[in-house]
Amino acid sequence: MVNHIRIFDNLFQSNISKFQNLTSKSYIIRNDNEKNSYLPMVQEIRELFGKEGEIFSKSIGTHPDFFGIENTNEYQYICSLFVDISGSTKLALKYSLDKVKLYKNAIISSAIEIFRAFDGHIHRIQGDAVLVYFGHKELEKSDAIINAINAASLMQYFNATTLKKFFESENLEPLKIRIGIDFGDDSSVLWSKYGIDGINEITSTSIHTDLASKFQNKAPSNKIMIGENINKYLDIPKKFRSIKIEKNNGVDVEKRYILNTNNLGRYSMEVFEWEKYLNSFSMLPPFSTENEQFYSPRDLKIRCWIIDEKNQDKYEYIERGSALKKEMNLLFKLEIYNQCLEFKNIKWRVVNYGEEAKKDKELEFEMNQYEGYQYCNQKTAYTGLHFMECYLYDINDKIICHDSFGLFINDNNREVRKLGIED
Fold it and tell me: Where does the chain bind a ribonucleoside 5'-triphosphate?
């Protein structure tokens, strides 16, 4: 991931510079010419994950889908993300209030830009915490959840790299960032106006929005806690999920549930392993290359295209930028960038996860008909996050290196938990 640290370093530094300019006499001139100077970093993130067009939301408060609500109620799904940034108050022990405000604002603003890069809507800033909505009426539910976990993962990566480096350079302990995410389906999220004339807001009423905040509070430091519905909708591989462990009188105790009551039943929570998740991308460099002579995307990379047979065309699918529908024809290609990477043979392997693939006993299989070729064809079939793997062998049939390409598949017809009483 070393190459991508630059994006976050530039994003954070640009926000510091931007807010420093607010106190400068030359700000008005500079602002007219450079008010969008920080946007290229956001655009880089969007392009990296295949996001096209303008960002979804450029405002805070009311979700753009519900500007017209007056004295009515509307039901519509949402994926809620709550992030809390603790540790920034220690800045006040070392700096003047002006400088504390500068750094805190740069941290919050950088977080906002990361969430907006994935089409998140900033609903509320609460001190060092931010409530973000992912999803809107034109977006598939699976894509809203994918956007949320991708944004949350990069937010934690931003903290583990750029912000950690900054705080250590100031001889301060790094920040502790906790993120909670949950999903409420259409019938479980009510949008309406709260308050009185002139003092009101349009917001969501949903236990799943409330639980996002609870999950944040339950998350270990610098981790992401996801609700049961997140996994139910995407069917995330177990290798990217874990049960929170707490010590009780020296004994490890599993904390599986956020709710465990007779009237509401059980509702589970799990830690989303964002480091493992990001490290499994073909398009992102690994966290460590110490034992790797060749690795993606520096020396090689798998790319994927959706084949549109009807229109005799193809469109590139950016890894895990969105979910693919079932029964889509795909073309995978291995691109070699390092001329020193000499190999004798290539083998392709499909690794599926999830209940649907398990039921059909199609979890892993070799693509033998494409042995020796730098491409292979496959079709989407099962809900979940699946991988196409490619292995390169030397003349002695020993593995030189390998790469894997992850893709989400979802028919957006998933059953999720509906807590509470429906109207």
Answer: 82
